[in-house]
Design brief:
With 83 residues, the chain is α+β, with helices and mostly antiparallel strands. The chain is 33% helix and 33% strand. The chain is built from 4 helices and 4 strands, in the order H-H-H-E-E-E-E-H.
Length: 83
Amino acid sequence: MASRTVLADLLSRRALEELADERSFERGLAYFRNGAVERLVSHKDRITARVVGTEVYTVKLWPDGRDLGWDCTCPVGQDGEFC
C-alpha cells in the first residue's frame, strides 16, 4: 500500500518560495507578519485562511497527489499564479 502525501510533507518555507515569485512571497510574508492573515484553519489536511489586502481574499492549500494544491481569490491567484 502506497503512503499518502499529507499537507505537512509539502509545506515548508523553501517549498513556498519555489512556488511563488519573490515579490508574491515577500508580500505574503508581510501580510502574515502584519496580522492580515485571519481565520487560519487547518481541517482534514486542508488549510484555509482569509487575507486582508487591498480587498479580502480567500486562500486554500491541500495535498494534490505529490504536489501542493492551492486556490486564491486574489488577482495573482486568479491569473493562475501561486501567490
